From TrEMBL:
Residues 135-355 form the Histidine kinase domain. The keyword Chloroplast does not apply. The lineage of its organism: Bacteria, Pseudomonadati, Pseudomonadota, Betaproteobacteria, Burkholderiales. The keyword rRNA-binding does not apply. It catalyses: ATP + protein L-histidine = ADP + protein N-phospho-L-histidine. SMART domains: HATPase_c, HisKA. It holds the Pfam family PAS. Its EC number is 2.7.13.3. One of its GO terms (biological process) is regulation of DNA-templated transcription. This is Sensory histidine kinase/phosphatase NtrB. Member of the two-component regulatory system NtrB/NtrC, which controls expression of the nitrogen-regulated (ntr) genes in response to nitrogen limitation. Under conditions of nitrogen limitation, NtrB autophosphorylates and transfers the phosphoryl group to NtrC. In the presence of nitrogen, acts as a phosphatase that dephosphorylates and inactivates NtrC. InterPro entries: HATPase_C_sf, HATPase_dom, His_kinase_dom, HisK_dim/P_dom, HisK_dim/P_sf, PAS, PAS-like_dom_sf, PAS_fold.
Amino acid sequence: MTPSSFSGLDLLTSAVIVLDDACAVVYANAAAENLLESSARSLVNQKLNDLFLNADDLLQVFHQAVEHQFADKRQDLTLQRSGREPLHVHSIVTALDNPDMPVLIELRENVQQLKLDREERMLDQSQANKELIRNLAHEIKNPLGGIRGAAQLLELELPERQLRELREYTQVIIKEADRLQTLVDRLLAPHRHPHIVGDVNIHEVCERVRSLIVAEFPQGLSIQRDYDLSIPEFRGDKEQLIQSVLNIAHNAAQALSDRIAQGDAVLTFKTRVVRQITLAKVRYRLALDLHIIDNGPGIPAEIRNRIFYPLVSGRDGGSGLGLTLAQTFVAQHLGTIECESRPGCTDFRILIPLP
């Protein structure tokens, strides 16, 4: 086995280094180059205590691996580096059946692992939400028609004198039934309409949303554009993506009401390309990276982790469906939505695979 035998490890997102029997690096994958901020050529022949100021724990485990005291060993470490930020990593040390290259060390940034765990929970929650919404909406829909019909029949059966006195109440029943019917229709919308696939230019989507937001908020709101015009077109449902971006941008504009009144509200559309990214447990070579950023008060802490749940809203009178529908539509494009929020900056990030 030679260092070139490990070339397939370049496809991994976690950093991998292979050590010889003298504890010197003989191979480092691309992720290790990124994590350690050094080229593979400069990493080769460096020892663990050259890479890290506090390598004692890793050195101890290295010697245990050489002696085949275990197959692999995992631990969380904070690795100090000269003149650079410390690395908070989850390390996996594996004993190899090769006396010349006896140890492989995999380093995963804990932040990345937390992100992957959060994505997995969001995917599971999204699937559960879809099943719950579909079943609940159908359960509500059937009796709603009966309630509305009964109120209409009651109006027809009531004598004229009683009708004048009671029509106010029957109209309340009918109007509330209609309101609930509209809510149910919105809940079922993603599952009813076919996925119409065509060529999508993400900047046309952003510009369409921008024009709609400007029409509703003509004063006090500045909409900035930071586009990467090299982003290729991709196959998708343009109307679904417009609705997704519009839901997020409209929520942001409403959250900016105080700043709009002051005249210093800013909403930013930013597009980039990211490479070698994992979405929903699938690795993609390229992905669209769309940010919708506002300088509002931020999402309240008590709902920050639940904003994509149905019927959760941080605004009085909000339906709590906008972000749920946005997430559903983006998921139908094999993508995800992430959010980071603090006072003065809320950043919604849409990631969608590119061809």
